[in-house]
Amino acid sequence: MIVGVIGGGQLARMMIPAAVNLGIEIRVLAEADGMAAELAASGVGDYRDLATVLAFAEAVDVITFDHEHVPQEILHALLEQGTPVRPGPDALLYAQDKLLMRAKLSELGLPVPDWAAIESAAELGEFLEAHGGRAVVKTPRGGYDGKGVRVVRAAHEADDWFLALAEDGRGGALLVEELVEFKRELAQLVARRPSGELAAWPVVETVQQDGVCSEVIAPAPHSAGKVADVAAEIALAVAEGIGVTGVFAVELFETTDERLLVNELAMRPHNSGHWSQDGSTTSQFEQHLRAVLDLPLGGTGTRDPWTVMVNILGGPASGSLADRYADAFAAHPTAKVHNYGKDPRPGRKVGHVNVGGDDLDDVSYQARAAAAFFQD
Ligand code: ADP
């Protein structure tokens, strides 16, 4: 059993210990500066180059991903070559293009914010008029961590993005959505095997800072009952409707009037599931390997009443994360630190901290305080 992972970021890197524990060979096709490359029997190469990807795939039993950006032609060529691709090209298409995703979710009858595809400032103006003068504009492709998401109040405020679409010859539309009044953001993580078995973790609350996830609380407070049931139902409908395999995440808004709306889908292990490494019977990374290998899925129960994950954003102004271990470990012995081996840079996710326990206030405090040792 050899799993091939395309993309060498922290998600690929965190699949490696899970594979090692199970004695499963894992290979990574990493970018030159990928964090996973140093740890796995890996190739360094460009995931946009057909020959490179096909050669990498020849030596593995299944291909999976650290990110969703592998071009569709290459995904189809892999299938033609006879390599299983999990998740498959169709599922990845929706994660690659927010307009296609909105259209698909609407077609499946799932609750989403009001949206439209717009091709001009005039169309943006009409949408604004119909939605109280405020809206969120998104570039359909290439956005992450809030880049490519903009709150607008006037029709001309997306002109630069229309121009960029026209200039790079792609043309096409931008996505515009109602500005959702939400109480909080939630995420529902699920795993699905090709044979159809599904396993859902408890729904979690995610906290964002400047469009970047900063903190996750598992399970989401006050979510027992209706919220958890609806979140799981939505995720299962996505799994079935899109035929996803592997671990995937559904990002949700809980609105001020108590509805759940789907924001985004991520067709891979996700930041909202990092808590599971230390807080669940089965971590999302082990589960992803099980799912893509079509093995029975592991339990998704919690180990502690509460687990809080805090991202280490930016990292220390000088030196490495490990330079701070002695002080951080002494002060917070219950904190589990995960270091991605990345160079610190403002705003960059360079690691995270998980803490579990019985008392949510204490768990949150410990996780935040431990993470603070690595940020200045
Ligand atoms: P990315 O792909 O960069 O993660 P998202 O579409 O998830 O972008 O948006 C990033 C953040 O912007 C969300 O987590 C949320 O806080 C905010 N946001 C996105 N869409 C809306 C919306 N329609 N209404 C209100 N806030 C939104």
UniProtKB/TrEMBL annotation:
Gene Ontology MF terms in the entry: 5-(carboxyamino)imidazole ribonucleotide synthase activity; ATP binding; metal ion binding; phosphoribosylaminoimidazole carboxylase activity
Annotated ATP binding sites: 98, 138, 177-180, 185, 263-264
Gene3D superfamilies on file: 3.40.50.20, ATP-grasp fold, A domain (3.30.1490.20), ATP-grasp fold, B domain (3.30.470.20)
One Pfam match: RS_preATP-grasp-like
HAMAP family referenced in this protein's UniProt entry, alphabetically: PurK
Oligomer status and interactors: Homodimer.
Name of the protein: N5-carboxyaminoimidazole ribonucleotide synthase
Naturally occurring in which organism (per UniProt): Microterricola viridarii
This protein's encoding gene: purK
